[in-house]
Amino acid sequence: MKLTVIGAGNMGGALIHGWAKSGKVDNITIADKNEQLLDSFKSKYPQITTTTNNIEAAQGADIIILVVKPWLMPIVIGEIKPILDLKKQIIVSDAANFTTDKLAEALESEGNLFYVIPNIAAEFGASMSFIAKGKSATDEAQSQVKELYDIVGDTLVVAENLVGPGMMMASCGIAYVMRYIRAQMEGGCEMGFYPNQAKQIALQTMQGAVSLLKETGWHPEEAIDKVTTPGGVTIKGLNELDHAGFNSAVIRSLKAGLK
Length: 259
Known about the structure:
Elements: E1 3-6, H1 10-22, E2 28-31, H2 35-44, E3 49-51, H3 54-58, E4 63-66, H4 73-80, E5 90-93, H5 100-107, E6 112-117, E7 127-133, H6 139-150, E8 153-157, H7 163-190, H8 195-216, H9 220-227, H10 233-243, H11 246-256
Parallel strand pairs: 1-2, 1-4, 2-3, 4-5, 5-6, 7-8
Antiparallel strand pairs: 6-7
């Protein structure tokens, strides 16, 4: 399989790193206008083919991943459209809000079109990716796309109207989690820990919470009950979060980008 990634910025770069490091994708071509960026990928992964020519990259590819800014998508699609074979090639939009309908409109054709939103943890095989297929996409093509993104983390095949909410939870959500970790670090520093110590504590606590839920299958409230005793310190901290509107703030942050 020849995989082509057009756009090697933050998100495209994370996917390229993840696929290249996995050893499970043996034919990767990346296209970007930044030659210095391409050189850095080539030096790290000699097996990758790099080019500044989008047409050259798309020619003969089995799957083409478009990971450029949404406003650049029509320009890139217009550039490669004449050489595409939509009866054979799978086209994936990884651009926020550039749905399969927009892909079809830009391509002036239906085909195996997909809208996929991963996140930057793909570099470490820990992405949460949401996959939606276009009206004419086949189940076989969907299986190929899912298999590809499974390499870089967890995937969910969803109706296209759920990709946006998924993006808010898992892509934008990474930033929200980082903000919580930063706040926990600041609290740790205020209580007397050095910043690196506070970071270690915050990260291990986050990892422990995630491992606990994954291994046990508990609902978060079950885990909360395990560490919350009547009159204890945990319930006092939880009540402070509630008084500050923590749950409401999280929910509002997730819904903000959908307005």
